[in-house]
Specification:
This protein has about 190 residues and is an alpha/beta fold. It has helices at about 20-30, 80-85, 90-100, 110-115, 160-170, 175-185, and strands at about 10-15, 35-40, 45-50, 55, 60, 70-75, 105, 125, 140, 145-150, 150-155.
């Protein structure tokens, strides 16, 4: 995407009850690719507690978002994904980014946020098993990672690495994704 001319930038949204591996794994791999990542708290404090009681300190609060970024990423988790759905400011931001044809990525139960907004209608998408009905109008594809235009969806914690590598591929390059895959010994 950027051909090395400018650093890509991403927001990863943390809500109470987020799935920690899906959030931190994505942040880790993107930062290995020199993608600028801000973890954004949609709660009341920078400290956000995951579904398994791991507390992560976000980089910024939602109301501190100032810059336009290349991609929005939603980690899953219960009640993390439903909490994302309830945040009106995030819903507005997602609609703005969709209208700007920016990348919208989500993993596990979080693709339902886009689905409930009607954004996946007619698109190929995937999610955690049992949440397909909330992908309103999407063509369900049972693959680890599904890309349809600017939407990137993935199935769950176990698909975090291929999901994050796909994000690197679309934001930086396939070569950088392969370099990181080899460096972390994924699939070797």
């Amino acid at each position: 995407m950027n051909g090395g001319l400018q650093m890509a930038k991403v927001y990863v949204f943390l809500s109470p009850g987020f799935e920690e591996v899906e959030a931190v794994g994505v942040v880790d791999i993107l930062r290995r690719a020199n993608v600028e990542v801000d973890m954004v708290s949609i709660g009341d404090t920078l400290e956000v507690t995951s579904t398994r009681n791991v507390t992560i300190r976000a980089d910024i609060m939602f109301n501190q978002i100032q810059a336009e970024v290349d991609m929005l990423v939603l980690p899953g988790g219960i009640p993390g994904a439903p909490n994302l759905s309830l945040h009106e400011g995030l819903a507005s931001l997602i609609l703005t980014y969709n209208n700007m044809d920016k990348y919208l990525a989500a993993i596990c139960a979080a693709p339902t946020v886009y689905g409930k907004m009607g954004l996946l209608k007619g698109k190929n998408a995937t999610c955690y098993p049992g949440h397909e009905a909330d992908l309103h109008g999407a063509n369900i594809v049972l693959e680890e990672v599904v890309v349809d235009g600017k939407f990137i969806t993935s199935r769950g914690m176990g698909t975090t690495i291929p999901f994050a590598l796909k994000l690197v591929e679309v934001l930086v390059s396939a070569e950088e994704a392969k370099r990181i895959k080899d460096a972390i010994l994924y699939g070797n």
